[in-house]
C-alpha cells in the first residue's frame, strides 16, 4: 500500500517527547523531557474521583460537561479575573486542553485561513492548524538582550496579520520559554485583534503557575476582548494530574457554540467522575495550588542553578514547568544532536527546543528541561550533568 497518511500530516512524525522518553528508559537516564510531575495532586481530589466512580458516576456525562464543573469554572474565572461566563452557554468541558485546542481550530479555521502564532510553540498547535487546513504565520519570541526574557517585537506581530488572518493564538504562561506575558504585551495582541476583527485563542493551562508574584493576565480580560476570545485551560497542570485530561474552554456563546458543535463528534463528552472531582477542587484547593506554585518556584531555582553550574546559559523562567538552556557556552550548537547523546553521555534526557519552531534554526541551540520533578530527581540530574561537564 502507498503511504496511507494524508499528505499534509506526513511532516508530523513520532513526537520527540516519545522518542526522548524511550531513550531515557533505554539508558536509565533521569527524564527531564516530558512535562509531568512525579508526585500526585491533592489527596482530596484523588479521593473524590474514586468516590464518584464507586458511587456510580460511570456513564456519559452531558456533552458540554457536568453542570457542576461548568459552574465551578465560571466561578473561578470570575473570582480570579473578574470575567463572567454563563455556565450553560459559555463554558464547555473538553478532554484536556488538547481537545479544546483541536475542537476550536477545526471549528473556527477554514482552508487557507491564517493563524498568527508565537514560536516556539506547543507542538499540538502546528499539527492542528495543518489538520484544519489553515496556515501558520509565526511571530518569533526571542530573548531580550538586556533581560534574557523571551518576548516579541510588536512590529513583527503587526506584519504577520494580513487579509486572510482569522485567529491569533496565544499561550501564557508560555511553554517552552517560561515567559508570562505582561498586560502591555497582551495589549499589542488585543489591539491587532480589535483592529482586524480577529478571533483570539488563548491557552492558559499554566494560569496558576506564574512565579514570583507575577500576575497571570487573561487576554479575555482586556478591553474589547471578551467578545472575541476563547480561553482553554485544564486540571492537568493546575492540580498535578496531567493524566486526567480534564479541561474546558470559556468564551462568548457564538465561539463556545462552534467548539461544542465540533467537539460532539470528536469526543462527544469527557470523563464525568473526574469532572465532578475537579469541580470540587476548583472551589476548595486554592491553598494547595498556591503551595504547589511556591514549591515549583523552588524547583526552578534548584534546576536553573545546577544547569548554570554545568555550563549552560539558563533562560529566564517566569512560569510553567520548564526552563530553556542555551548549549553554546558548552561549545555545542546542535540541540537535536546533544539531546540524542545526552541520555547515554550524561544520563539525563531533555527536549531539543528546535521541535517547537517553524524556523528551526532559531531554536537549534536550545534544550528544554522540565523541573516539575522531586528534588532528589533534580539533584541527581544536576550531579550527573556536572560530572559530564567535568569530563567534556
Ligand atoms: C500540557 C499542555 C497542554 C495540554 O493540556 P491537557 O489538559 O493535558 O490536554 C496544552 N497546552 C500547553 C501549553 C501545555 O503545556
Write the layout of secondary structure elements.
Blueprint: H1 16-27, E1 30-31, H2 43-54, H3 67-81, E2 91-95, H4 96-108, E3 114-119, H5 123-131, E4 135-140, E5 142-143, E6 150-151, H6 154-160, E7 165-171, H7 183-196, E8 199-203, E9 229-234, H8 235-238, E10 246-250, H9 253-266, H10 272-284, H11 286-309, E11 313-314, E12 322-326, H12 335-345, E13 348-349, E14 351-352, E15 366-370, H13 375-391
Parallel strand pairs: 1-13, 3-4, 3-7, 7-8, 8-9
Antiparallel strand pairs: 2-10, 5-6, 9-10, 11-12, 12-15, 14-15
Bound molecules: pyridoxal-5'-phosphate.
Pyridoxal-5'-phosphate binds near residues 97, 171 and 247.
**How would you name the CATH homologous superfamily of the largest domain?**
Type I PLP-dependent aspartate aminotransferase-like (Major domain)
Using the 3D structure, state the CATH architecture of the largest domain.
Answer: 3-Layer(aba) Sandwich
Rounded mean pLDDT is 96
- The helix content is 40-55%
Pattern of helices and strands:
HEHHEHEHEEEHEHEEHEHHHEEHEEEH
Keywords:
transferase; single chain; 392 residues; alpha/beta; Kynurenine-oxoglutarate_AT; Aspartate Aminotransferase, domain 2; EC 2.6.1.17; globular
Give structural notes.
It is a single chain. The chain is of the alpha/beta class and 392 residues long. Helix content is 42%, strand content 16%. The protein folds into 2 domains: 7-40 and 288-387, Aspartate Aminotransferase, domain 1 (Alpha-Beta Complex); 43-284, Type I PLP-dependent aspartate aminotransferase-like (Major domain) (Aspartate Aminotransferase, domain 2), CATH 3.40.640. It has helices at 16-27, 43-54, 67-81, 96-108, 123-131, 154-160, 183-196, 235-238, 253-266, 272-284, 286-309, 335-345, 375-391; strands at 30-31, 91-95, 114-119, 135-140, 142-143, 150-151, 165-171, 199-203, 229-234, 246-250, 313-314, 322-326, 348-349, 351-352, 366-370. The longest helix has 24 residues, at 286-309. The structure holds pyridoxal-5'-phosphate. Residues 96-98, 122, 171, 175, 203, 205, 234, 236-237, 242, 245, 247 line the site of pyridoxal-5'-phosphate (PLP). Its cofactor is pyridoxal 5'-phosphate. Its EC number is 2.6.1.17. Belongs to the class-I pyridoxal-phosphate-dependent aminotransferase family.
Amino acid at each position: 500500500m502507498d503511504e496511507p497518511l494524508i499528505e499534509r500530516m506526513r511532516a508530523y512524525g513520532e513526537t520527540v517527547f516519545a522518542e526522548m522518553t524511550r531513550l531515557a528508559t533505554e539508558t536509565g537516564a533521569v527524564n527531564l523531557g516530558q512535562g509531568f510531575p512525579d508526585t500526585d495532586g491533592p489527596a482530596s481530589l484523588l479521593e473524590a474521583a474514586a468516590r464518584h466512580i464507586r458511587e456510580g458516576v460511570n456513564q456519559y456525562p452531558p456533552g458540554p460537561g457536568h453542570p457542576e464543573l461548568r459552574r465551578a469554572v465560571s466561578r473561578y474565572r470570575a473570582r480570579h479575573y473578574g470575567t463572567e461566563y454563563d455556565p450553560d452557554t459559555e463554558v464547555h468541558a473538553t478532554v484536556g486542553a488538547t481537545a479544546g485546542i483541536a475542537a476550536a481550530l477545526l471549528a473556527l479555521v477554514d482552508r487557507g485561513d491564517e493563524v498568527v502564532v508565537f514560536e516556539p510553540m506547543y507542538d499540538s498547535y502546528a499539527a492542528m492548524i495543518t489538520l484544519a487546513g489553515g496556515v501558520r504565520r509565526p511571530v518569533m519570541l526571542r530573548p531580550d538582550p538586556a533581560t534574557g526574557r523571551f518576548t516579541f517585537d510588536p512590529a513583527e506581530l503587526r506584519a504577520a496579520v494580513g487579509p486572510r488572518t482569522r485567529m491569533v493564538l496565544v499561550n501564557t504562561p508560555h511553554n517552552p520559554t517560561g515567559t508570562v506575558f505582561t498586560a502591555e504585551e497582551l495589549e499589542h495582541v488585543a489591539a491587532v485583534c480589535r483592529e482586524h476583527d480577529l478571533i483570539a485563542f488563548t491557552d492558559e493551562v499554566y494560569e496558576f503557575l506564574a512565579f514570583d508574584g507575577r500576575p497571570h493576565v487573561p487576554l479575555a480580560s482586556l478591553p474589547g476582548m471578551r467578545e472575541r476570545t476563547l480561553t482553554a485551560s485544564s486540571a492537568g497542570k493546575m492540580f498535578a494530574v496531567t493524566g486526567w485530561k480534564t479541561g474546558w474552554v470559556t468564551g462568548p456563546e457564538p465561539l463556545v457554540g462552534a467548539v461544542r458543535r465540533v467537539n460532539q463528534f470528536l469526543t462527544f463528552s469527557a470523563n464525568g467522575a473526574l469532572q465532578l472531582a475537579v469541580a470540587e477542587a476548583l472551589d476548595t484547593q486554592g491553598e494547595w495550588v498556591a503551595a504547589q506554585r511556591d514549591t515549583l518556584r523552588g524547583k526552578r531555582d534548584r534546576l536553573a542553578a545546577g544547569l548554570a553550574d554545568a555550563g549552560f546559559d539558563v533562560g529566564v523562567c517566569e512560569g510553567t514547568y520548564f526552563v530553556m538552556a542555551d548549549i553554546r557556552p558548552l561549545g555545542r550548537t546542535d540541540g537535536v544532536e546533544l539531546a540524542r547523546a545526552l541520555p547515554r553521555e550524561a544520563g539525563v534526557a531533555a527536549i531539543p527546543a528546535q521541535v517547537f519552531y517553524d524556523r528551526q534554526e532559531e531554536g537549534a541551540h536550545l534544550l528544554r528541561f522540565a523541573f516539575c520533578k522531586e528534588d532528589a530527581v533534580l539533584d541527581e540530574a544536576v550531579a550527573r550533568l556536572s560530572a559530564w561537564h567535568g569530563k567534556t
